[in-house]
Known about the structure:
224 residues, mainly alpha, 10 helices
Amino acid sequence: METKATLKRQFLAWYIDFLCVSVLTFSIAYFLGALDWFRGYAVYVPAVILAMLGKLAPQFSLGRKFLSIDLNGIVDPRIVSRETFVLMFLATVLALDGTKQLVRWIDLSPFPLFGWQPEGISQVVVAFVLGSASILASYWLFKLNRRGLWLSLTIIAFWSLNILLSWNATNDAVARRTIEKRALQGIPVRNGEIEFMQLVLNPSFLIVATLCLIVLLKYRGRFS
């Protein structure tokens, strides 16, 4: 039986398109030296327009491929029968984080990796590798491909172990990134803001990572 893509599914496909095109427009603005002119939400305007064009030319829509929607708006029945909201949500978060990592190095200092602080070209390479891994994991999770399960578990284990081994260095990175974020926004750092972020970030990540681990293991039988 054919299943037409719901409006929610179509919107999610558009959102994936928007994330992917945002990376492109943000990168182009950076390499053209126009990032200051595009600073703020303006950089996303071209992304919104281009992502909307995916409705007119669905064959070029990455979001539809992620969500298993064919050119006629029909969803792969093998996916629909096994997917769950929580797995789709996790896949969306991975896509969001992956696309952000691809361009985050432009504005913000990276988090340390097992005590090592990437700089220069190594920072770009690390961002590309980790961002691409998250996007690939997202794609496979949407497809309920078993490779997505294993890659997602690997990503969770990688970042959890990194947090535990780079606890103090991560706190230093939080202070730098908070100052950088507020400088970009043109506002001062609020009193106690850095200390609060240093207090909650690492434990919060480990809690979220544990919940994601539980979800993936609970629904592992849905992957093939």
